[in-house]
Amino acid sequence: MCVFSMVTLENIGNIFAGFEPGSIVGKLEMLFSGIVNGIRANPVDIPGTAYHHGLQCRKNATKMFREVLEKKKKNQDATKPTNDLMDGLMRVKDEQGQQLSDEEVLDNIVILIVAGYESTSVAIMWALYYLAKYPHVLKTLREENMALSKHKNGEFITSDDVAKLTYTNKVVEETIRLANIAAIVNRKATKDVEYKGYTIPKGWKVMLWVRYLHTNPENFEDPMCFNPDRWNVGAAQPQRKIDLSSISETKGRC
Ligand code: HEM
């Protein structure tokens, strides 16, 4: 198992469902890579296909989280309450005061792990690759982080601290751009759309090729160069927001 997947899953498993690091991470990794392969496969549900395997993995992953959920329900009044994402989802109520069903809680946990674990581990891997290749970036990054660490005096960093790490945030932006962690975004046309002389008929699926946008010299100067400073405020910038509202009313957000 890749070390970055392991670290990411250990953390996500702990934050989302209170899994103790180490215990079942290997099993979770196998299940979630099966699910991810199934999502990417042709949807042919017969034994032997990646899609069928993905569905089986999803069932088994849900079963593991269901066991945790049942335990949480039995210990609701325990003296040592936990406060992970599953607890939050079990508590949350809509405007009518309705709580999520068990199935909804489990679906949310599984989808968040699917969306979060591979993207994060691949991003970490590419960040390390670029830092090794561009030592001056690593130096600046290290200085910013060491200054924070000194200031914190051994305490954990908070999300407010992370927001203040301006150079580190630019390194993250640049890694996501150049490594194209999410290379495509999908939409379905909710009406006929005219685009550059072409008609996209209602109901067609549209795939936005983000890799092309990220490496196009019209959008980014010297696009294949890893340069976090291109994200400086005030630097000549391409549009960071792509408006897909003319194609689909569905808003995707990460
Ligand atoms: C480097 C890390 C990540 C990248 C590059 C990334 C990228 C993306 C992209 C491009 C989309 C599609 C947005 C759209 O359709 O407009 C997306 C959706 C999503 N991401 Fe991420 N993501 C990352 C990490 C995460 C993490 C850590 C989580 C959760 C723990 C997460 C949860 C989601 C969810 C739930 C969606 C679906 C949102 C929706 O359809 O409304 N992502 N992500």
UniProtKB/TrEMBL annotation:
One of its GO terms (biological process) is brassinosteroid homeostasis. GO terms for molecular function: heme binding; iron ion binding; monooxygenase activity; oxidoreductase activity, acting on paired donors, with incorporation or reduction of molecular oxygen. Keywords: Iron, Metal-binding. It comes from the Eukaryota. Pfam families: p450 (PF00067). The keyword Metal-binding applies. Signal peptide: none annotated. PANTHER family: CYTOCHROME P450 26, CYTOCHROME P450 FAMILY PROTEIN, EXPRESSED. This is Uncharacterized protein.
